[in-house]
Design a protein that fits this description.
With about 170 residues, the protein is mainly beta. The chain is built from one helix and eleven strands.
């Protein structure tokens, strides 16, 4: 009986010691800084544009780029290239390039490296997943809808289609 009592107590101590581990502490995270307006001149110029988050207008004279986020409107003459955009991205005579995009892109060339939830409107449009593309040449792995002269949709209803194409 003593051995059974000892075994029960030992098992209980071992089980409860697992829960008595030291709690992990994390350093407090500073809140993200968001600007209402930011102007850029080139890739990484000014230096603050590289990681800045904008909730409002990000303006490029002639280029707007960076690894931050834009919630609102990104506009430039030649190139809008912010990694994450939710809103409207417009390069007047150039290229829009994003990693993750929600909203509408309008330029001569529009590129989204990962996922787009929205519309690309330009001469050449490229995305990996989802979205609607309207242009002369549209290329994607799996775009929702494509309207243009040449539509390449690797996982679409037809891999190559003239006119209108959509995903399966």
């Amino acid at each position: 009986m003593k051995k059974l009592t000892f075994a029960i107590i030992l098992t209980a101590v071992c089980c409860f010691s697992v829960f008595a581990q030291e709690a992990k502490t994390t350093a407090p995270v500073a809140p993200e800084r968001w600007d209402a307006f930011l102007a850029g001149f080139w890739f990484g110029a000014p230096a603050s544009i590289e990681t800045a988050n904008v909730s409002g207008l990000k303006w490029g004279l002639p280029i707007s780029a960076g690894h931050g986020k834009v919630v609102g409107f990104e506009w430039s003459f030649f190139c809008c290239a912010t990694d994450t955009v939710k809103g409207f991205q417009w390069a007047m005579i150039g290229v829009n390039d994003s990693q993750d995009f929600t909203g509408m892109q309008m330029a001569l060339v529009n590129v989204v490296e990962k996922k787009i939830s929205g519309l690309q409107f330009g001469i050449v449009n490229k995305c990996d997943k989802e979205g609607i593309q309207i242009g002369i040449v549209n290329t994607a792995d799996n775009a929702d809808y494509q309207i243009g002269i040449v539509n390449l949709n690797k996982n679409g209803w037809m891999p190559f289609m003239v006119g209108i194409n959509h995903s399966r």
